[in-house]
Every structure is written in structure tokens, then in C-alpha cells.
Amino acid sequence: MKILFAxxxxxxxxxxxxxxxxxxxxxxxxxxxxxxxxxxISYFSDGNIYGIFKKxxxxxxxxSEGNGNILRLGIFRMFLFALKYRPDVIxxxxxxxxxxxxxxxxxxxxxxxxxxxxxxxxxEDSTNNKASQNLKSKDRFCExxxxxxxxxxxxxxxxxxxxxxxxxxxxxxKAVIIPxxxxxxxxxxxxxxKPKSERTLKIVFIGEILKKEKGFTELIxxxxxxxxxxxxxxxxxxxxxxxxxxxxxxxxxxxFHLTDKMDTEKYAEFxxxxxxxxxxxxxxxxxxxxxESMAAGLVPVVxxxxxxxxxxxxxxxxxxxxxxxxxxxxLNKLNYDRDSIFNISEKAKLIYxxxxxxxxxxxxxxxxx
Length: 369
Fold this sequence. Notes:
40% of the residues lie in helices and 20% in strands. The chain contains 15 helices and 14 strands. The strands form 2 sheets. Strands 3-4-2-1-5-6-7-8 form an 8-stranded mixed β-sheet, sandwiched between helices. A 6-stranded parallel β-sheet has the order 11-10-9-12-13-14, with helices on both faces.
């Protein structure tokens, strides 16, 4: 079977969630299954680097992975490549605008098209004041095509599917839910987890601090209202605005650490001696960071708007909360009952048995049939 993956490919060691999923799925099919022939195509998206000729006719070979190749192609090259390659499946692995061209290929083939819904661009653009109206219109046009003409829509959670229905009509028979998978490094980190602190609660936040929907400001508001010491570790490409950062640094109970993204091995090791992962998000279709943290032995405390909360048995392997008052109460209870942190942590680690990358790989194989 020939599979053509299309989307954003990151060949670095640090990823966004959608980029990580793209890499893991492609690597699984190109490395573990000789019956699959795979190619991953991306585009010359950055206009500050690539000119119009590259965008139309360019072709760069990026690398090979197992029995698969990774290419960067211009628009015309892309279409000609698809005609020659004649894939059985086109998998749009994360949201980009360029793969919309590949739907024309259906006029020449009975190819099956699969679209991974990592987020809802129509919703995200409605809250993004920085993007131009022109770019928002392009996003909406492409997303409409993806939802209308894809044979299979892969959602990360029921929450993601519910959000999508606010913007698009689609046949429920096309919808499949496949969560993000967990790398083995987090399982190993969970097995080797270091003893938890008996004095200072170590809390992890992962996400873009300046994105309102990630809920960092709301998290800080809750932490200001507790009366015990915590260490807050934030992994983010952005920093709090100067006023909020000053308030955090002046607080008597918060020791704040801002950390850059890490490669998978370092990131798993980083998590191994932390206590709690908090997702205060108001819009999170799944949260791969939450399930990775669980596998590494952290207690997940997640908002009801975090899509992976369906994997939490409240109070057993994690905690789901609805508002700031509940979050404060949860943190107080965990701080003054350290045995509960250990007990929930041990149960949280079991998420790896359900969401390891091999099991998720099998789910994708079933979609391609």
C-alpha cells in the first residue's frame, strides 16, 4: 500500500504536538511495516526564505526514514509527484493550506483521503487578533474542503468532534477518534521517577503562555490564593508579560522557572521528579503533554475543556476541575495529603498501557484499510 503524508514536517528534536504526531505516525509506517510504501511531502511555506519559483517548482530531498522519503515540494511539483506516485491513501497529517491541492487528485484516482483534526482553525482564528483577514479566509476555505471531501476525519477526542460541529456539518460515519500516542521515554521516566518532594509542591505547565486559551493567567490567579510554597515550571516559547512576571516574582509562595522546549529524552527526564501537571486550558482538543506527564508519574489536574479528560477517573488516576475555586481546593488537598500524590501517580502511569505509540499505530492501520 502506498501512503502519501502531507503536512508540516519538523526534522528537529523539539516539536509542537501536531508535528510530533506527524513524525511518530510516519516513522511507524516507514520503519515497522515493509508492506507500506510511504512518502511525506511538505511545502516551501516561509515566504521570507523561499521565492515564488521555489513555491511553484521547487523540490528538496530532506531525508529518508526506513522505507519512506521526506520531500519538500512546490505546488506544481507536488501535483505531478502525486500523479506519478499514485498513492492508495493521502493522509493530511496536520493543518496546512497547501494539501488542499491534493483533493484535485481524486479526479484521477480512487484515492482515500484522511484528515487529522488537531485543532479547529475556524475557532482558533476567531480568537486570533494577529492574523490578517486574508489568512483567516484561506484557513476557513481549506478547512471546509478537508471536512467536506475527506473520506475519514480523525479527531483526538469527543471534545474535538463537538467543537468541529459548531462550524462544520459532516457525516458521523466519517469520524474516527484516535488519541495521541505516548513515547516509551515517558514510560521509562515513570518507572525511574525520583522521590517526590515533601516540602515544596512541584507543578508543571506546558503551553504558549501568551495564548489566552492556554489559561496561564488563570493558573497564576489560583496560585496567588494558596498559602504554601510551590515551584512552578513552565515550558513555553513565550514569557509572561512584564507586569504579570513582576507579580509572580514578587509573590511569597511561587518560585517560577521558565524553560525552553526540550527533546523527548530530556523532557521525559525533566518530568521525572515533578509532582503535578496542570492544564488550565479553555480550549485543548486533547493535550499530549497531559498524557505524557501521566506516564512519567505526574498527577494530572486538568480543566473540563481539556480533551483527554475522558481518560481520567476522577480522584483515581487524576483530577478534572471546572473553576478556580475547585483548582485551589484540589491543590490544597494534594499538598497536605502527600500519600494521595503517590497513589494517584501510580495509577496515572498506567495510561501508557492504553496509549503507547504501538497501540495508536494499530488504530491508524485500521483506518487505512
